[in-house]
Amino acid sequence: MAAAAAAAVGGQQPSQPELPAPGLALDKAATAAHLKAALSRPDNRAGAEELQALLERVLSAERPLAAAAGGEDAAAAGGGGGPGAAEEEALEWCKCLLAGGGGYDEFCAAVRAYDPAALCGLVWTANFVAYRCRTCGISPCMSLCAECFHQGDHTGHDFNMFRSQAGGACDCGDSNVMRESGFCKRHQIKSSSNIPCVPKDLLMMSEFVLPRFIFCLIQYLREGYNEPAADGPSEKDLNKVLQLLEPQISFLEDLTKMGGAMRSVLTQVLTNQQNYKDLTSGLGENACVKKSHEKYLIALKSSGLTYPEDKLVYGVQEPSAGTSSLAVQGFVGATGTLGQVDSSDEDDQDGSQGLGKRKRVKLSSGTKDQSIMDVLKHKSFLEELLFWTIKYEFPQKMVTFLLNMLPDQEYKVAFTKTFVQHYAFIMKTLKKSHESDTMSNRIVHISVQLFSNEELARQVTEECQLLDIMVTVLLYMMESCLIKSELQDEENSLHVVVNCGEALLKNNTYWPLVSDFINILSHQSVAKRFLEDHGLLVTWMNFVSFFQGMNLNKRELNEHVEFESQTYYAAFAAELEACAQPMWGLLSHCKVRETQEYTRNVVRYCLEALQDWFDAINFVDEPAPNQVTFHLPLHRYYAMFLSKAVKCQELDLDSVLPDQEMLMKLMIHPLQIQASLAEIHSNMWVRNGLQIKGQAMTYVQSHFCNSMIDPDIYLLQVCASRLDPDYFISSVFERFKVVDLLTMASQHQNTVLDAEHERSMLEGALTFLVILLSLRLHLGMSDDEILRAEMVAQLCMNDRTHSSLLDLIPENPNPKSGIIPGSYSFESVLSAVADFKAPVFEPGGSMQQGMYTPKAEVWDQEFDPVMVILRTVYRRDVQSAMDRYTAFLKQSGKFPGNPWPPYKKRTSLHPSYKGLMRLLHCKTLHIVLFTLLYKILMDHQNLSEHVLCMVLYLIELGLENSAEEESDEEASVGGPERCHDSWFPGSNLVSNMRHFINYVRVRVPETAPEVKRDSPASTSSDNLGSLQNSGTAQVFSLVAERRKKFQEIINRSSSEANQVVRPKTSSKWSAPGSAPQLTTAILEIKESILSLLIKLHHKLSGKQNSYYPPWLDDIEILIQPEIPKYSHGDGITAVERILLKAASQSRMNKRIIEEICRKVTPPVPPKKVTAAEKKTLDKEERRQKARERQQKLLAEFASRQKSFMETAMDVDSPENDIPMEITTAEPQVSEAVYDCVICGQSGPSSEDRPTGLVVLLQASSVLGQCRDNVEPKKLPISEEEQIYPWDTCAAVHDVRLSLLQRYFKDSSCLLAVSIGWEGGVYVQTCGHTLHIDCHKSYMESLRNDQVLQGFSVDKGEFTCPLCRQFANSVLPCYPGSNVENNPWQRPSNKSIQDLIKEVEELQGRPGAFPSETNLSKEMESVMKDIKNTTQKKYRDYSKTPGSPDNDFLFMYSVARTNLELELIHRGGNLCSGGASTAGKRSCLNQLFHVLALHMRLYSIDSEYNPWRKLTQLEEMNPQLGYEERQPEVPILYHDVTSLLLIQILMMPQPLRKDHFTCIVKVLFTLLYTQALAALSVKCSEEDRSAWKHAGALKKSTCDAEKSYEVLLSFVISELFKGKLYHEEGTQECAMVNPISWSPESMEKCLQDFCLPFLRITSLLQHHLFGEDLPSCQEEEEFSVLASCLGLLPTFYQTEHPFISASCLDWPVPAFDIITQWCFEIKSFTERHAEQGKALLIQESKWKLPHLLQLPENYNTIFQYYHRKTCSVCTKVPKDPAVCLVCGTFVCLKGLCCKQQSYCECVLHSQNCGAGTGIFLLINASVIIIIRGHRFCLWGSVYLDAHGEEDRDLRRGKPLYICKERYKVLEQQWISHTFDHINKRWGPHYNGL
Predict the structure, then answer these.
(1) Residue 1260 phi, psi dihedral angles, 5° rounding
(2) 563 conformational bin, left if phi > 0, alpha if psi -120 to 50, beta if neither
(3) pTM reported for the whole predicted model
């Protein structure tokens, strides 16, 4: 083979006569080399034919896939080797042929060398982690793979990491999409010159082989596709085919990765039309090819596509210059015939027949109507490949292959054109697909790569009619789900709308299409074409009109709807995505004067569409009652283009406005929505269910508001500025249904509204007017001002995080608009209006995020209630803003009372909209204001402070915007008498304010008080007449006026239609068809607006004559009124402000105000208490009484709770706490008294009714995590770093125990150590007590409680009835004395020898189990609980399972665990002293009783009792030495602390203090000897001999027993006898550092060895005898504890340096006992010196436990772990997690790693933390805590630059460690308070 290859390279080749027969095994390489040579010759025809023949045979589709896929060809195909074998063989051939005889890998490498890799082009699929940098991106869709991102320089850029939803490709190197500065090192443009030219022969074979290979693939695809039965193609069959083709497609994919050279060959092959024709035409004689061609034609046909034969004109002819190239089957709203809809293909016709008639028209000439939708002709492999890709619903592999080719420019263009050509077909397939979600993602994956490139998009728009295709396809899609609109005229409506319940809308199936459309509209050149093409605009408006009026709501008046449909969300999404976003896309290109024409086009066709819509729904002038739709996209298009025209293009507004009649129609529906919002908030729509509230909220919600409510309000503002103001105002009050309320009479009948809704509807109407008149969003504010106003509004409602602000501030919703929130203006405005509050921690564990809060000056000058009202989704937010504002004013001392919403001066109006202010100067509004002021003054029903506030606001607005023309002279001529025919003389508010109104005629119910009062007056008719002449007026004409105006406007000839009408004010009274029992009454009013305001001032201030005109003292005020732009205050200040403004604007007003003030005002009419009000008063009284009762109860409860508060307030801060005693006894009582928190009784705990402490038992491995170095371990972030647990406390203790068990007797080993370092049981209490029988009934009630609790009652869990702390057991309190005054505490003066004897006797007494009392039962059950708390493996260490020694060991270890943990909670030492928190709620005393009671059941055989070995000299029997099979553990190897606990728990309780001290003294002697032995082993040979001699000299001195030198020398000499030191070779010396030992360092070493024992003992003494711990400095800790324990003689002076040996008190002569102890190990060390030495050195200096140290930046963790493979299944887990205690990498919820139904995290939490696990979820950046069978999300310790968490990495901003949070997490872990502090726990069912 090598020879053949060599020959091939040489180019010379032994010519082979012909191919060997097919039967023989072919030598592929030789054949390939031969063929390559044959083809290299100039005349290569023979070679070519030879190759063809070979390929025919190798790649034959004769054994088609059908054999594998099943089907009728299977039999025919027959054929062995299984389906895969032939394909593999074929692939092998191809690889050989491509390489031309050489090795395939070398060939690949050779081709790669010619790759001009300027583009990355890496293609990824969904869920891939990529980056997007907005600073570098030109297109907003730009994305980079992680590698390119990290190799480029993006420091300081605005980038984020994201998880790809649909897949994508890396744009690095593509300067169309991103700036070159952002390219990574690899793709910084290489000039193509330095890449050598590809040698011809390298790829020659590829050019011959690949066309056949691809054709073979296509044949397979044709074969495999069976036209589906009725139910659609079965997914299974298609997937089977695809699975079999996997290797082929992967092969192609690998080829694309070989780089540019190979890609260009592939491009040639795929786009060459000749090749395609030759191979696939099906005309040849090859039956197989023919058959496959037929299948292809069938597939085409069944797709509803025609295959245009040559006789048919193909497709769209080149359009002639003028006409549009649209061949639309849509509806186009110009002229046209009416006709039935004929639908293109059968399966789309199901619903569309009976839809009524619609306009439709054909725009272009002789093209085939259906061409866009139905014609496909394939001319190249690429086209047919795409066709099959679509047919098979976009298999991922095919998509990736097609995309991998994109870096080739020529291919990119060809592919884009092919894609566009198939566009309609793609969407048809999508519509029918079952898996539309996956398919949508794959389509967008492709299209976003193609259409984001402006140049390409422009090219296909011009050459392939991309826009026509898209719009047509959109129409086609929506047509399948149209229904008849029921808006307005249900019977005769011709309008059709989309049905939001259809899957197409509900599942958002249309989004790929719309997203492509938005994408191409973001390119200016494409958008311009769209805006210039009238035909397209017409079609588009048609499309938009399908959404106009969708999802119609009808108000339910009788009963609640049965079924609440949730379709509204689909409707909002559809309007936003399909209508609004394209609109914003188009608007972004209409920014300059030159684009005026576009706006005119859009506006023109928009108005036409609207006119058609009004005609279709038969709309005249009244909207149908009780209907509302929130969807008016046509109105909104019109509004937004108008706004843009005025703001950016300097168009004259009037030139694009329609006539008055159209304006009147335009305003109706948006106004209807505003009124409906008020109705919904007034609960008038409750019977429609919650969803209607949902709609009202969505309509104003931040993502929708500037495509919904903002354009609506703007459109209403435009209409108001051009229509007659009286007409507009009366329309508003009529729409809001409050016309009947606006009467002077105290009672009225409202025909359209219930009384309980009147008030809120009136508030709604006035609020709407205020918003309409004060909002300037589209009327002249600049973009920055808008942003600032929005931001202030959001911040005033609540403090916000940075990300929620970004989310809440409505940006231009078109995501492709380029400028994205986070832009510079956003940050600069934010820093101008808000202060940053860093994330703080509150005790109790709720974690704050970094928040922004408004600056003081913002509250002072910019808080705008109007904007807040407009933007609140929930009404409570308005209240919240007002509360915060009030708080600010109180705090800053600006206003003490209850302020009103402040009045704010507005930015000036754009001149085009000046007409809006006429609303404030129209009589109708003035009448309304006058009436309302009067009603408020007279205390009529249904008026609120809010109404008054709005009324005053409107008056003030009117005064601010008054027309300046009024001169005092002109007004004073006629005086008030001049005008008899109406309420007010003119329309200027300034002059109308002073106009007195004397009488008003009203219609009132006959029961009204007014009727009776006026009966004498109404007898004489002339009386009435005279009254009428003196200016009687009435307001019911509101409705009538409005109708009349409307008729006037409509009837006028069109010539004057453009002049705005000044209406004749008419006073003819026309009653609405009102109920008969109304009668007419005439009221005497004699007030003007000014007089009403002054009286109102008196009423509000509660004083007569409280108003005094300020200018009487200082005339300057009027000339230059210092009226601030912004004013705080309440109603009184508002009235004063208004009067001042009125006076300063007109001298007449000033005079009249002074006059009114001179008259003494009559008192306000006394309040008549009506029955209803009486009721409310009674209610108030009752409430008051109830409140008092409650106060009393609370006070009682409070005293009970006081103790609780002390315990519960500081779960989180163990320092500085007041100790709370569990018991509350007076000192003289010896019996402890307990309070039961359930029944509330107090009393002692007794044998038959025991009291218990509420406790939580949990297994803990925190102790086991202590290490001996201070620095915590780091979390591994690379393969090199690994954590090994061999140096943890748990591991060291384990090793020691197993070493002992190897050489010594098992039962004795189990007394020599403690366990519980891992899985020890920790007991904690909240300090509350309860009767055990009360507790049982409490548990019973919990069990029957159906409410879902966060805990499981069956496992005995509950929450403390008082403080709700989590608990799971009750620890019985031993009846008897209180700790404080223990009779046993008095010191006795017995000698130590006596005490030793007593101790031994007491221990010898067997502990009989007390009689069967309730107490003993409880003690037993709690012991069971304690055992069950931890797993069996943490209890059983004995070699003989179930041995009693096990239980014994476990019990005293529980005590040890709790003491050690308390020590850790105190910081590892006792320097702070006191009874720290741990002491405050400690239950150790009770726990000791329970343990002691059980330990006494096991008596240690006195033979083996270590006490004797410690205190008596025995006969040493040298023979006994090592003869026993397994000796006992020598006493020097015992753990002294364990001995202490055993000794104490073996004593009968309660223990006497002097016995305790005696035990401690004896044990200290052993401890000290161990310290000396350990020291002797640590030091070097020379030191040892030096000490040995030095000590021996002093041995005879008097206090030799208390001198460490003497003792040390003695120990050394004793141990020397065993061969302990002999083994030591040289290697040992090197290992131990040669420390120079000074007496000080030796003393320190000895003290350090003894300290842990002293600490534990002191703690124990503190708990048993209630003595306080003294506090001290760290260096004196030893001496202080020693004296506290009574080891130090009291007469000890502290002058000279302290020597630990002085604490020794030997019970027997020291040297004797030491000799005895050393002898025990002598025989052992003679055989095992190494182990003997290891056992002597006990590691006692453990540092505090820590969690792993985390890196500063989260990205370092993420990049390493999110790609890391699982050690069990070697796949990358979906949810990787890492344990923060030990660094183990685990799969969350990973089924691969499940063991006996436990998932890996749960399993790990049991192994690593005995049931407690702390995991960092890599993909979410959050920490999850597992505690037993529950789990909770703890939060994140990584925050971004704004102090916020980023759960699930949704924002993808860089995250940094928050040290404080991590400390809190660690603190909760160490203090075992996860259960108490975190509230949201749920069961995990072992599934994590």
Answers:
(1) -140, 140
(2) beta
(3) 0.81
